[in-house]
Design brief:
Mean pLDDT: 82
Number of strands: 0
Number of helices: 15
Structural class: mainly alpha
Largest sheet: none
Shape: rod-shaped
Low-confidence stretches: none
Helix content: over 70%
């Protein structure tokens, strides 16, 4: 069961790595996908088939050192990611304590990584007993000083990185108010708690076994139990990092659906006033698949375009049109949709401009409220036919 879970976690980490690679190429994203890519390699070397093939290759136990190299690279990447996230100075130009700690740890990690990898390589090929290929390295080398010294270097490196990540993400968790992001930070911090327990727990156990060697069965059970802890760590880490991105994805999806709903009304208004939009309206497919502008920003731009067009339409209709639309369609978005339809027809049929007519926009405290109201008006607009009595009110011959 543990072996199957190992394959599942390796696939999960690989999928997240690919997703992150496709997500962008700025420094922050490169650091994050580098972290996932390194851990994905490490996890694949721990799976049963890959582990067996590598350990029985020309380099005995090659899976072990390859796993540690890739995990070490992932640790370096995550250190750079933390500095990229927390590195900017505050508005006063001062560096917060958490940022100073992150930068110091990153510098120390980068400078000691090469020394650590060099030392591990020398120890692996000299003092580690590799006369027989191992299956579970820690269990198979329990009570051996060479393997204990080798693993101590790696566990100190891994545990220290886990501790600094825990420190940063726990602080961020306490400061964050947004529910989804707070949940993600909490999961990432919990993953690092498991990382600290895994690293130093294994290290202390191996040192204890030097004085009191365990039975192979006990060492195997301990190895398997801590492996399960590490797999849980990676699940929480992958989910925690992905949740904030999921939140942004949900925001973009809501914006995309808002664009799809608002498009028909927006297009007709922009065709009536072609000087308002920055670009001439394209087809629905072209507008909804644009890559040069974020969907959320596009919604905001369309809301301003619609507001500007309504402001101009007010000069083509009399004051009584809005009240007449309310009597016909009732209060709310349906009345506004009727007013817009009638005003567009009035302009199209040559009604001369005059003083601005009364029009009451729905009050909204934020963009979400504006979008929600615009969607309701657009929905009513799509179902609304021009009312001839409203055209007469607007001074337009039917």
């Amino acid at each position: 069961m543990l072996e199957i879970a190992g394959y599942a976690v390796a696939v999960l980490m690989t999928a997240v790595a690919i997703w992150r690679i496709l997500g962008g190429s700025d420094a922050r994203r490169r650091s994050l996908w580098g972290c996932f890519f390194g851990f994905a390699i490490a996890l694949w070397t721990k799976t049963e088939y890959v582990r067996y093939v590598l350990n029985h290759s020309q380099i005995t136990d090659a899976a072990v050192i390859l796993k540690h190299y890739s995990a070490g690279g992932a640790i370096l990447a995550i250190m750079y990611y933390i500095v990229a996230v927390y590195g900017p100075l505050d508005p006063n130009g001062e560096m917060a304590r958490a940022v100073r700690v992150s930068r110091f740890i990153q510098l120390v990690t980068a400078k000691t990584a090469l020394a650590s990898f060099t030392l591990m390589t020398i120890m692996f090929f000299t003092i580690v007993d590799r006369t027989q290929p191992s299956d579970k390295f820690v269990a198979d080398h329990a009570g051996q000083w060479g393997a204990t010294a080798y693993m101590t270097v790696f566990y100190i490196y891994l545990g220290s990185a886990s501790a600094i990540c825990l420190y940063q993400w726990a602080l961020a968790f306490r400061r964050e108010d947004r529910k989804l992001l707070r949940t993600g930070l909490g999961m990432m911090a919990f993953a690092m708690i498991l990382g600290v327990l895994y690293s130093f727990g294994r290290m202390f156990a191996m040192w204890y076994w030097l004085a009191d060697p365990p039975t192979h069965a006990f060492a195997f059970d301990f190895d398997s139990g801590t492996e399960a802890m590490q797999q849980l760590l990676f699940v929480f880490f992958a989910l925690g990092v992905s949740i904030p991105a999921t939140e942004q994805g949900l925001i973009r999806m809501r914006s995309w659906f808002a664009l799809a709903r608002i498009y028909p009304m927006w297009r007709e208004l922009m065709l009536a006033f072609p000087g308002i939009p920055m670009d001439a309206p394209q087809s629905r497919r072209e507008e909804l698949t644009r890559r040069d502008i974020d969907a959320n920003l596009q919604v905001d731009r369309w809301l301003h375009d619609i507001a500007d067009a309504i402001e101009k339409l007010r000069h083509y209709v009399p004051d009584g049109l809005l009240e007449a639309a309310r009597q016909t369609a009732g209060s709310g978005p349906a009345a506004q949709a009727q007013w817009i339809k009638a005003a567009l027809v009035a302009k199209d049929r040559g009604v001369p401009e005059g003083p601005a007519a009364a029009f009451e926009q729905q009050a909204a405290v934020d963009q979400d409220g504006e979008v929600a109201w615009a969607r309701l008006v657009a929905k009513a607009y799509k179902k609304t036919d021009v009312d001839h009595s409203l055209l007469a009110t607007a001074g337009v011959q039917a």
